[in-house]
């Protein structure tokens, strides 16, 4: 299975500034689905 042409959706990164979590209005949240055996 190849994902060469995969383009992530538009949005902003979630970050940490001054020890606090900064979540933008349109965050990009990665989701990796596995088979659950690992």
From TrEMBL:
It comes from marine metagenome. This is Isocitrate dehydrogenase (NADP(+)).
């Amino acid at each position: 299975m190849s994902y060469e042409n995969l383009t992530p959706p538009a949005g902003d990164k979630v970050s940490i500034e001054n020890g606090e979590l900064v979540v933008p209005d349109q965050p990009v949240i990665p989701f990796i689905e596995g088979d659950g055996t690992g």
